[in-house]
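Handout, section 3.2

Students often ask what a structure token actually looks like in practice. Rather than define it abstractly, here is a full record for Transposase IS4-like domain-containing protein. The first block is the sequence as you would receive it.
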Amino acid sequence: MRIVVCPVENAEPLLYFSTDTNMRPEKIIGFYRTRFQIEFGIRDAKQFTGLQSQQTRDRERLDFAFNLSFTALNVCKEVIRKDYPDLSVAQFKRLMFESYLASTIISTCGKSPHLKIIKKINHRLAQLAA
């Protein structure tokens, strides 16, 4: 068994294990990082983009649903990275819902508010989501 110990400032060290005793420590850490990225991606797709919501058993439809779910998650993460770097996926989803709700209410009222008011509402929603 190969054990890699990574010191962490002000915390317990991280321990990484591998049954391949010839594997380099950097590669072991890389495998762990990749594994956690995959697990977090699946978790986020389940929670936020309906990965488990489909009821079909048809293989092609399942493939389509899985691809759609992960594509939506990737688009969401890219928008967050570019425009809202301080928000989590949950906060971003909430912001999008609240923005949609606000625009629905505004459009239902019949009057078109001034652009400054709309920007102020969107800014306030972004603050609430964070």
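Discussion prompt for tutorial groups: Residues 3 and 17 are 5 Å apart (CA to CA). How would you have guessed this from the sequence alone?
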